[in-house]
């Protein structure tokens, strides 16, 4: 019996042309931020299954990379002189804090080194929590702070077999054909008169290390850049007498082979302070830092040939511009900013076109910012099941996070939208 005094609710019929096709739904949902997508996974099984697919993860990443507004700076910094280190997401233009991924170092002095990052995933090499020295051990972790997922990588067998290591370098790459992440460890074994290079590769899909044959004959730099399926580093020959790097060394992640090309000649070797590789407008770039001026070159590829083109010449406008730590130097595309951490002087930006130097943030200690780089959030590692772990050194504490003013404004601006079913598997409400 119908209730008296109340109008019966009528469900208004929706014309068939008002429904969106599944392809359009995917396009719309893939443009949303990661934090929203994690909530959408709880709406229904259909959306959860869709968001977890590799195709959706790739599409979301592609849309994020194509929108410069989604590019931020990821900074590992200390909040106070004796405070814990935090992982902060900041705007590239104003350096304003937009989010914080807190991680506990486990103990004071624990050292964490970011060896590389691709598609929102960081390769972190850190001290073993059981050690008290704070030195880097064999603990290697892949971490995506956006989705709060980490994967502990087993120690490379080569590190435990030999004690005559002269140098160890970790590299991080992504195989675009197999859509698989790979970690590369390069070890140099003495004596110096006859250096041997041994290399092992860890593949995320298999969860195991394996040795690969190589013809690498260079000391490779710690700084690296990844572009179009290859890892790029500067290097000098094992028997070289020159103090600076002379070659650009690349590692093809799919074929697992090394290649090398000669770097541009140094115009004045007596004034050269450092050489480092980075990415400039989706090309491999080289920074030559000199005592009087610095030169920026870009690697051009035309018809299978490779050549270097001088792009910028930076005059010595400030002493601090040329005394920088290479780990804190990179180029921000589209706004033509060269960002770097001056030794004990804070984070600064240098506009290559206008030649303006700007202080973005002061440092409270020499090592208060030990990692700064551009970062785009992604869904990578969201559904990966291989050795998922909760390592304290990379554990995000979103539950205890206090939102910033920008986040609070974003929450107020959210609009609740009634979403109609777009296929038969989605139950109507």
From TrEMBL:
Residues forming the F-box domain are 20-60
Q: Which protein, by its recorded name, is this?
A: F-box domain-containing protein
What organism, scientifically named, is this protein from?
Answer: Carnegiea gigantea
């Amino acid at each position: 019996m119908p209730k008296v005094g109340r109008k019966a609710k009528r469900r208004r019929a929706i014309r068939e042309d008002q429904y969106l096709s599944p392809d359009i739904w995917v396009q719309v949902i893939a443009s949303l931020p990661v934090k929203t997508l994690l909530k959408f996974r709880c709406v229904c099984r259909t959306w959860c299954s869709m968001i977890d697919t590799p195709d959706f993860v790739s599409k979301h990443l592609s849309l994020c990379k194509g929108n410069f507004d989604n590019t931020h700076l990821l900074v590992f910094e200390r909040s106070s002189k004796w405070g814990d280190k935090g992982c902060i997401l900041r705007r590239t233009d104003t350096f304003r804090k937009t989010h914080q991924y807190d991680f506990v170092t486990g103990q004071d002095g624990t050292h964490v080194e970011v060896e590389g990052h691709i598609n929102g995933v960081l390769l972190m090499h850190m001290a073993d929590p059981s050690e008290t020295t704070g030195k880097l051990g064999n603990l290697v972790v892949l971490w995506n702070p956006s989705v709060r997922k980490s994967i502990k990588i087993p120690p490379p067998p080569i590190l435990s077999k030999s004690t005559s290591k002269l140098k160890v370098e970790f590299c991080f790459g992504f195989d675009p054909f197999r859509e698989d992440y790979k970690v590369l460890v390069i070890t140099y074994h003495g004596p110096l008169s006859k250096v041997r290079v041994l290399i092992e590769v860890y593949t995320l899909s298999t969860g195991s290390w394996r040795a690969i044959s190589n013809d690498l004959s260079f000391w490779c730099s710690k700084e690296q850049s990844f572009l179009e399926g290859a890892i790029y580093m500067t290097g000098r020959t094992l028997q070289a007498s020159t103090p600076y790097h002379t070659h650009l060394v690349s590692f093809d992640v799919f074929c697992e082979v090394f290649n090398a090309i000669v770097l541009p000649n140094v115009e004045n070797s007596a004034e050269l302070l450092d050489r480092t590789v980075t990415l400039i407008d989706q090309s491999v770039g080289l920074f030559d830092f000199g005592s009087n001026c610095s030169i920026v070159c870009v690697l051009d590829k035309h018809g299978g040939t490779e050549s270097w083109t001088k792009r910028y010449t930076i005059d010595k406008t400030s002493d601090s511009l040329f005394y920088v730590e290479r780990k804190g130097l990179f180029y921000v595309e589209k706004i033509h900013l060269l960002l770097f951490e001056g030794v004990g002087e804070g984070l600064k930006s240098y506009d290559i076109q206008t030649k303006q130097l700007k202080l973005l943030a002061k440092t409270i200690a020499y090592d208060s910012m030990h990692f700064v780089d551009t970062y785009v959030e992604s869904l990578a590692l969201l559904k990966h099941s291989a050795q998922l772990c909760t390592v304290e050194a990379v554990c995000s504490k979103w539950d205890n996070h206090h939102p910033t003013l920008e986040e609070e404004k974003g929450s107020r601006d959210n609009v609740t939208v009634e979403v109609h079913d777009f296929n038969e598997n989605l139950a109507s409400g």
